[in-house]
Automatic annotation (TrEMBL):
Residues 254-263 have a biased composition (Polar residues). Residues 174-195, 214-263 are annotated as: Disordered. It comes from the Bacteria. This is DUF222 domain-containing protein. Transmembrane segments: none annotated.
Amino acid sequence: MHQASQITADPDVRDAALAGTVSPGKAAAIGRVLRDLPWAEMTPEQNRAAADTLIGQAAGGATTRQIAGSTDKVLEQVAPNLAPSPEGRAAEAERQRRQAIRERHLTFTDTGTGSVRILGQVPQMEGDLLRSVVGACVERGRGDERRELEALKYQRATGDLSAGEYLAARTALQERERRTTAQRQADSDDEHRGSLLTLDARRKLLKARSASDQWRIDFDETGRPHVHPPRRMRGDLPPGHPDTRENSARTDPDQPQQTPLIA
C-alpha cells in the first residue's frame, strides 16, 4: 500500500508504471524523490520536468538506488536556484552519516541448525564493505550463472525489473548456463580424449624402443609403464653397460691401458 501511494502520487509516474516504461520499484523510488523535492517552492512546470527527468533516468537503466540518490541532481537540472550549495550538500551528508552511526545495529543469531541469521543496519560505507565480505561467503562455490540469477531475483523483488524483464533475462541466463554446461562437458571430453591419445602414443613409442633392444615393458590398468630389463649373459651386454664386470676404462681408447703383470 505504501509503495502504491508513492507510485500514484504523480500522474506521470503512475502512467509510466502502468505502461510498463518503468518497474514498480523504480516508480516508487521516483515518487519518494518527488516527495522530498521542495515542491512548494517549485513551479508546476518544474515539477513536471523533475518527474520527466526521473522517468527518463529509470527508463535509461538507472537502478532504484541511483534514482533515490538523485534529488540534488534533479534540482540542479530543473530548479538550479533551489539546489543546495556544495557546502550544504557536505553538511547534509555529514548529518546523514552521524544519524546512520547512531542508528546502526547488527545481530548475529545462531539458528541451531548450522546457520547464522544476520539482522541489522549499518552506515553506507560499512554496509558496502560488509556486503562484499558476506557476499563472498554466500556466493562461494556458485557459478557465474547462479550468482547472476540471484541478482535477477533480488532486482525483481526490489522492483528494479518488471515481470517481463525478469522472465526474459532469466530465460537468456538459463540458456547461457546450458551452453556453458555443455561446453564444460565438451572440454572435459576433449581433455580425456587427448589424454588417451597421449597415452597411446607413449605406449607405441615405448613398445618400439623395447622391440629394438629386447627390453620388456608392461602396462598396468592405469596405463603406467613398468620396464623390465632383459636377462642377458654377461658377454651379450653392450660395452659400457653398468652390469658388465669389465673395467670400462679398458674399452675406452682415450684411457691408458694397463700392462698385465703376468704374460
